[in-house]
Specification:
529 residues, alpha/beta, Diaminopimelate Epimerase, Chain A, domain 1, six-stranded mixed sheet, 17 helices
Length: 529
Amino acid sequence: MDPAMPTAAAVLIRGKSIQSVYADAVDVRDFAGARIVDLGGRTVVPGFNDCHMHILPYGLDLAQADLSVAAGVTDVPSLVAALKRWCEANPNSEWALGNRYDQNAFPGAAHPTRQELDAAFPDRPVFVMQTSKHAGAANSVALKLAGISRNTPDPEGGEIARDAAGEPTGVLLESAVGLVTRRIPRPGRAGMVAAIRRANDALIRAGITSASDLNTGWFDMETEIGCYRRAAEDGAPVRTTLFPHAPKFGGPDSITDRETFEAAHFRTGDNVRLGPIKLFSDGALTVRTAALREPYVDGAGSGMLLHPPEELRAYIHAAHAKGWQIAVHAIGDRAIDLVLECYASAQKRHPRPGCRHRIEHAMLVDDNLIRRFAWQEVIPVVQPEFVARLGDAYILGLGRERADRLNPNAAMQLAGLPVPFSSDCPIVPGAPLDGIRAACRRTTRKGTVLGSEECISAEDGLRNYTHWAAYSTFDEGVTGTITAGKRADLCVLTEDLTDETLDSARVAATICGGNVVYDADGMMGRTPA
């Protein structure tokens, strides 16, 4: 991925860094004192960088019931069966917990109701999270613990779904999810550290050497930062960038100066670093809460903004003025338009060149929005795996024409935009090779190709998941290419990654900071010198 040396024959690692990269075959005597590993024709690429995921939540989710379509959950009975199996394996858990169900794959595209969950779990609180994490479903015991009844008002930025009689159905949207989740026992520090380590173990098997945690502080900012640092000290190998969740500072006027915050919570040279500040502007397409200019085709309205426009603008202006790179979740075109306008007004008030503000997801965009991304120098951070795993749900909600326009990666690249790839894991499983396949093919589970003109090459996908992902967090000087002087974060693939080998290429080994942390078939032998 280094344009100065697109391919190479050998790389020399000393300690944590890449010492030299050799373009052509070399005499092994040049490597005096080093251990030589002949990869036998395999291909080395920069370690993958998932620049938008949720590391701690991923580790916690791995300990819950998997309710995804991939796990065989395609209706409420199979969801209940999976939950029962999890409860049998976790008899001491006070709650029955699961995640990643997708009601769009269920008959009638209907969420599970409290009555359906009550029938299987009359005495135990149940909460299951929809795959977007922008909705969930609870049974009556959980609703009662949360104090939710027909008289409970909708919280700001959320909705308690109700039946024709005004009674809660058990389905909660956006901020209403928090009414229940705050009642679920939280893990202590040891549990959080274990979850971060669990997530790291999964990431390195996928070839990921760098990852960003979006929304750090969802439980408690200081505690979570401390747990990430402790996990790194205990050996968690993935280079981690944390995005503090802006509302956890309080209102816009309470946002801390970035340099002050970094000095108080981070140390230079650590494997855990500070990234942008994070905000949400809208919801998700799969639960019809992403904010659109035109309504959803299935009568679900046109989504919602999670902050009043003036409040979102105040957050962005404050964070921009205090030196933060900003990352705002915006999926629908109405939300994207608003965020771009807020970025433009913040720059006009406090000019700051080169700040690399981001829009997370940036899904429903047109040519005009792409041009605005370009001239404002805003980075769209996309998740190509969404189209493959959730694309059929997008067609249901948007219709075919708008679904074809989601994440126009080729058009954005043609406009000169960096297009960093990521996964939003645990929303989807998040293996980078799966994301690259999805970007190259744009094919849904049911075989529909969405916007075939937006397919990109495997090489572009690899660049987006390495160099541009590093660029999106100002880390391109340290990671993202195989270049002398950079950190020795490498992924070994079983073969060259091309459009023809997308299905057969696999991760064979992962090296983080010069250490072999995953070795599928033992070819690496031991940690490099």
